[in-house]
Design a protein that fits this description.
By secondary structure, this protein is mainly alpha-helical. The protein contains seven helices and two strands. The longest helix has 26 residues. The mean pLDDT is 90.
């Protein structure tokens, strides 16, 4: 039996119902708004908080290393890092490896991070209460798996 070629055409409704880019961006914007609302008063947005958190967790030896860890474009990350440096929340230092600069939180950065962490914790609790803690744990596991698969696919496409 031959399939009607017209039936294999993707429609706008198909895209609206299944586009991973669309749904991930809509969800991302809503989650970002939720966390940003909670971080009001700290001077940070959730993207900046995430960068401080990643540096606190494991100080990187280069902006490239941090970009890979966070899955961010290096140029976008660089602009945000420069803003955090100008706010005296981050300090850069020579790593001794080529022209790489390592990053660390300044004393002011540590203080702001701790204030933001309290607000982030409350925002996260509200979020998991809303979506369900177990459901979110399973979702984060799947998102990590999908991210790893996409990252591997994108890297192999560049080679």
């Amino acid at each position: 039996m031959t399939q009607d070629p017209a039936s294999s055409v993707t429609t706008p409704l198909d895209v609206a119902r299944s586009c991973a880019a669309l749904y991930s961006r809509v969800f991302s914007r809503l989650v970002t708004r939720h966390y940003n609302n909670s971080l009001t008063g700290t001077g940070l947005r959730v993207t900046q908080f995430s960068i401080l958190n990643a540096i606190k967790l494991s100080p990187p030896n280069s902006i490239h290393e941090l970009a890979d860890l966070l899955g961010m474009e290096r140029t976008s990350l660089q602009r945000t890092v420069e803003k955090l440096i100008s706010m005296d929340l981050l300090a850069s230092r020579s790593t001794g490896q080529n022209r790489s600069l390592g990053l660390s939180l300044t004393p002011k950065g540590e203080e702001v991070y701790e204030q933001a962490l309290e607000k982030w914790t409350q925002a996260h609790r509200e979020f998991t209460d809303l979506v369900g803690e177990d459901a979110w744990a399973m979702t984060t596991q799947q998102l990590r798996q999908f991210s790893n698969q996409l990252q591997s696919s994108l890297k192999s496409g560049r080679e």
